[in-house]
Amino acid sequence: MIREFDLSGRLAVVTGGAAGIGRAISEVLAEAGAKVVIADRNPDAAHALASELDAIPLALDVTDPEAAEAAAARLAAEHGPAMILVNNAGIVQNGPALEIDIADWQRVIDVDLNGVFYTARAFGRHMVAAGKGAVVNTSSMAAEIVVHPQPQIAYNAAKAGVNMITKSLAVEWAGKVRVNAVAPGYTATELTLLGRSKPEWFNTWLAGIPMGRLATPREIALAVAFLASDAASYITGTVLTVDGGYTAL
Questions:
Q1: How far apart, in whole angstroms, are the C-alpha atoms of residue 16 and residue 227?
Q2: pLDDT tens digits for 77-116?
Q3: What would the pLDDT profile of 117-176 be if each residue is shown by its tens digit?
Q4: 118, 155, 186, 246: which one is catalytic?
């Protein structure tokens, strides 16, 4: 292995780490040698994957800032501060702006935007104190463009905020902690099942992807592993788009 890609000895926390893209990220970071903490609101799923990867399961609701602070402190006391944090937990709610329920709007913003800040602050506090670490946030190509035909204003707005959190923290913590984001395009996960079941959505998606297919979760995870590694030692404040060329059109 190229030494800059080797994550041996590093504690890596992955939120939403038990399913979808998060599961693939947990698997890839473990392959690269990291000791992975699978942080998920589904403790059974976290424990099941942890047993496969020799990882650490952690029940965590990213919308609870006090829980995030407590988890970060507990892990630091038991294992040393996490050197990698992947803020991957996320949900989507489709619906026109004039019809979306305010509770649904608030839930998406709380998980996809507030949760990123809460966990970045909680774990970043220990990284900054240690003077080293890497945060990778899961954004989306929807942070930069309005994807269609599905309406998803809350998700789009939240991911745009994730990009600015990424850039802001990268500047604040420069020289100590690198902060970047990966912006996936359409990926074959549970999150896109609804769209893939609707031909009028799915066919539109494929028509807009120059590579003509959805990403696999592993393809996104490999980009995350790169940004988390020393191979990206001079990269901070960057949003790496992994979308098969969708936003190039």
A1: 18
A2: 999 999 999 999 999 999 999 999 999 999 999 999 999 9
A3: 999 999 999 999 999 999 999 999 999 999 999 999 999 999 999 999 999 999 999 999
A4: 155
Neighbours of 220 (CB within 10 A): 27
pTM over 0.90: yes
Q: Is 155 a catalytic residue?
A: yes
- Burial group, residue 94, by CB count within 10 angstroms (0-12, 13-18, 19+): middle
